[in-house]
Amino acid sequence: MDEQREGRPGGPPPRWGGPFMWRHGPPWWISGVGGTAATAGPEASTARRPPWVTTAALTVFVQVGSRFAEQGQLDRVDLNAFARVLLFLATAVLLLRHRHPVPVVYATAALTLVYVAAGFPYGPVFLAIAVSCFAAIVAGRRRAAWGAVGGLWVGHLLIAHWLYRWLPPGDDGARPWSEELAAAVWVVAIVAVAELARVRREQWAKERAERAQAAKRRADEERLRMARELHDVLAHSISVINVQAGVGLALLDSDPEQARTALTTIKAASKEALGEVRQVLGTLRAPGDAPRAPAPGLDRLPELVEQAGSAGLAVEVTTEGAVVKPAPGTDLAAFRIVQEALTNVVRHSGSRHARVLVRHETASLTLRIDDDGPATGTDAGGSGNGLAGTRERAAALGGTIEAGPRPDGGFRVTAVLPRAADGVSRARTAPREE
Predict the structure, then answer these.
(1) Which of 360, 410, 256, 236 has the alpha carbon at shortest distance from 306?
(2) Cis bond leading into 169, ω under 30°?
(3) Rounded to an integer, what distance in angstroms lies between the CA atom of residue 158 and that of residue 113?
(4) Any residues with CB less than 8 A from the CB of 327 and at least 6 apart, and which?
């Protein structure tokens, strides 16, 4: 679980090493080719730091190793101050190999070629061109890497088999061709390893982009779910409050007792709405905590009927089939669908009577909400986002919703939802169409 949370907002910082680094890449590979600290994220600052440790270690190794190589090559020029400067520069420029891979690979190739042309001993100096070539290929600068290595190889061929007559040490002959074959093998090996590293880096970058897109999609889906919850809670409660406020104002002088009843209903509806809003917002403040109150379901259908009745809407509920509690997601969606449908009847229909049918079947749950009255607004279904939100709820569970006018007048909303939770998994794992 800790490995899954690494790199996410709010999770522990990434541990660069072991399986995590193999899946996500070392820190200096985090930023893409040409990326900047502003676009690559917090890890980009790590990617931009010069590799001081590895460069210093390589510099020491090349300086010391060249001394040992000198002892076995008596036909070459002894190391002097000029040779030490060339060795130092060839490794020092590697500090910039991640930021400027192209100039670095050409610089190391040129310095190495000057070192060889001066007649100094062969040895660890070729590690500099190997490291810079590797860095350039990994950074996606393959042509530059191949060009630099190819130029070094051609230059060495000229020096070893033609120009050696005019170059130090002066009394040596042409180098054996077997050395050129060995050098070619080493070049091919370096390029192959670098290409494999580049491919792996591109895979890491693609995986990071896919994870970022998935996280963004999950965040968008969560925001949409919260928006639906808040809409359903507030639309229903405010509709009841609006109707009761109108009743209270109309009867304030002529029937104070009835006006008091309307105010009592407003207080109860607003209290319930505040409670549900707090529950929804509480999940935003503490996403990992369990909710303090259970999510509403069809067992609270009598409360909806009572609230609708306080708004002047008589609701008749009919239940068919063996009553078995559906999965929590289906239960919540069913409650919100009925709630939204009754809210639309209160707000947009001239009917004061509605019928709710709940049919329990083996694999599905069917809801049907009817009213008989003509539309008093744009249409009986409402003009806001309520029905769109209920369709999204049903689609997320693998269900369907149909809403529209009835042939004999009035309006009907029919929803079919899967009873089991596997509908949710099927909907989430289904391929997304672009």
Answers:
(1) 236
(2) yes
(3) 11
(4) 418, 419, 420, 421, 423, 424
Q: Give the single-character DSSP code of 96.
A: G
Question: What is the C-alpha separation between 337 and 387, in angstroms, rounded?
Answer: 8
**Residue 431 per-residue DSSP state:** P
**Burial tier of 255 (Cβ tally within 10 Å: 0-12, 13-18, 19+):** middle
**DSSP code for 399:** -
Query: Who's near 39: CB < 8 A, 6+ residues apart?
Result: 31
User: What digits encode the pLDDT tens for the residues 37-75?
Assistant: 333 443 443 446 889 999 999 999 999 999 999 998 888
User: In the numeric block, which tokens belong to residue 228?
Assistant: 């639906």
Q: φ, ψ for residue 291 (rounded to 5)?
A: -65, 145
Q: Rounded to 5 degrees, what are φ and ψ at 162?
A: -145, -55
- Cβ–Cβ < 8 Å for 51, 98: yes
Please tell me the pTM assigned to this model.
0.47
Amino acid occupying residue 377: G
DSSP string for residues in 288-345: TSPPSSPPP-GGGHHHHHHHHHHTT-EEEEEEES------HHHHHHHHHHHHHHHHHH
Q: How confident is the model over 372-400, as a mean pLDDT?
A: 70
Three-state DSSP state, 382: coil
Residue 377 banded pLDDT, cuts 50, 70, 90: low
Structure tokens at 195: 């290409």
What 8-state DSSP symbol labels residue 77? P
In sequence order, the 6+-apart residues with CB closer than 8 A to the CB of 405 are 379, 380, 411, 412
Q: Is the pLDDT of residue 160 over 70?
A: yes
Helix 386-397 with 422-429: angle, nearest 10 deg: 100
- Is the Cα torsion angle 250, 251, 254, 256 positive or negative in sign? negative
Rounded CA-CA distance 182/6 in Å is 44
* Residue 416: strand pairing partners: 366, 400
DSSP 27: G
Task: Please state, in angstroms and rounded to a whole number, the distance separating the CA atoms of residues 150 and 156.
Answer: 10
Closest CA to 133 of 47, 197, 203: 197
User: Could you say which DSSP state residue 32 is in?
Assistant: -
Task: Give residue 86's pLDDT.
Answer: 95
> What 3-state DSSP class applies to 141?
coil
Q: What is the CA radius of gyration of the chain?
A: 37
Structure tokens at 292: 């303090």
Q: Retrieve residue 235's tokens.
A: 């639309």
| Cβ-Cβ contacts under 8 Å for 341 (sequence gap 6 or more) | 354, 356, 369, 390, 413
Q: Which residues contact 154 (CB under 8 A, 6 or more apart)?
A: none
